Amino acid sequence: MASIQFRIRSKANKHVAIKVRLSISRSGVFELNSGFNTHPDNWGKNNFPKQNSEDGKKLFSNLKKLETFIHAKLNEDQGSETVINSYWLEKCVNDCFNRVSASDSNIFSNYVQHIIDNASTRKVKRAGKIKIGLSKNTIKNYRMFKNVFTRYEVSIKRQISFMEINNPFIERFTTWLLNNENYGVSYAGKHLDMIKTVCLDADRNEIRVHPHSKVIQSFRKTDDDRYIQTLSFEELDKVREAIIETEELKNVRNWMLLGCEIAQRSGDLLELKPEDFRYKNGLLYLDVDQEKVGKDVTVPIIKPHIIKIIENDFPKQINYDRFNDLIKVVCQVAGLTQIVEGEKRNPLTNRVEFGRYPKWELISTHCLRRSFATNYYMRIPTPLLMTITGHSKESTFLVYINKRQDKDANADLFRKLVQDWEREKITKLQVIRSS
């Protein structure tokens, strides 16, 4: 007959684990931690905790509950082909108290790791098309997010399951991000977006999630609190005309000038090769399949100095981090030393801090794409700019360059385009008449 016993293995003057031991035959003896612990002084001779305190009574009740549960489950499973072993016993313990095993996919951080491990075969919908495999940047973002989330789990000394991701949890996690870790508002908001994304993915894969996880609200800095750095046409001329000594910095400058005229993310920019450009009817074009959103865009190459770079001095491949560091050096050499308000990472705290800095210190790879959008805004109709940057919504584009929609300015631009069109018609008519 099967027997179930509880015992402790140590008489040390400290709390020790309570073991549960199941014996179904001479060769079928299994033992593991019950998940409970007690001090040896509180352990009775009957192999149950003494009931001389509230904690002891509660522990006694839990162990009795587990004993009854295992007996019932054993009677049920021995009548089937279920294998009774240590794994079976572990599942009984977890099921009895609705625990989630650390190796279970119901653990949130484990599921994030599952996404990372299977990144190359995951289906992703981009621009209405299904593609296989996550982008490098997406994988990097998942890894960074998992590191932060795991640090939170360490701070609270336990792992989080999907069913725990409710509104109170989100409030506690947000407070930890902002107050304990001193992350910026937008960066903290991105982590909430990631939690929601992971929960929705788990839900699609039939993993039970808390209903609140599907409606988590993120946040970001207001427009008034955002500090965006761009390089104006005049500043780009300074960069182009600067006297630069080393070949490496000249190479970085070419990437910079190219990036400010093709408006692509740094991940797409630094992967470009000369063969990605094409001529049609004597005009130069670039076709890009944007990795992040999966959009195919075509960029006209117009400025003579950019055409010259592409044809005669195409930049060599460079590491993203190295490029990001050397951009600042190029801007410093070009004399972009004016003091401006902005944010940059403090290497001592590893946190972004607001302050007044020389502009060259605030220029990064992402400023190139944003410079294009800012420089040509209100010079070129916004829908045309969006076909090059890859933005789908004008509202998103305007947030990107930190602009509010100016209806009067849009009307003035429309008036100018119509007037230019009318003048062109009149000029053509005059030419026809005079001929």
Automatic annotation (TrEMBL):
Residues 226-415 form the Tyr recombinase domain. Keywords: DNA recombination, DNA-binding. One of its GO terms (molecular function) is DNA binding. The keyword Transport does not apply. One of its GO terms (biological process) is DNA integration. It holds the Pfam family Phage_integrase. This is Site-specific recombinase XerD. It comes from Flavobacterium noncentrifugens.
